[in-house]
Please model this.
Amino acid sequence: MTPEEVAALLKQIAARDNRRTGPETIAAWLEDLDGLAYDDCREAVRRHFRESTDWLMPAHIRRHVGAIREERFANDGLAVYQALKAADPVTEEDYRAALKNIRIRVGCGQVFGLPAIEAGPTVADRPSKTYQEIREKRDEQRKESALSVARDLNPGELADAPTCDCGALLDPDGSCFTCGTAATA
Model:
């Protein structure tokens, strides 16, 4: 970040917690936030004040920016794969170098022209794409499994099954699936 961006960031922080800033504060924060993008830091400030009453320090911003970058990795796995495939590394050393470069770019929100995360609804406010895909696949598998069992079930098989006084089926050892009591058929 530039000194002007740090000053703007500190101005946003001061608007929330009434801190006083000066040239020394700007210089110290510039050193502490070295290597971070302004938009990510601005989002980190927003997240901090939405989640915490703690006095904001550079370490809090670094922690939030780290979370923002991890969210990008989780949500942009396909972008990393496509960028790595396009880099077409030949050796393991080339592969590692390309992967490191791509991870840095994705973490900063700059791969394939993706902007750094902007203030507004965050990735944390919704499940990740990977999570949604896994959940949909699991739900499909459960549905298919249930349909498979239903197709294989002979309707007459349950008609003669032992039941409890409450009407529920008994498990093989004679206890009720529903109320847990031992019953006689």
User: Anything to note?
Assistant: Residues 113-122 have pLDDT under 50 and may be disordered.
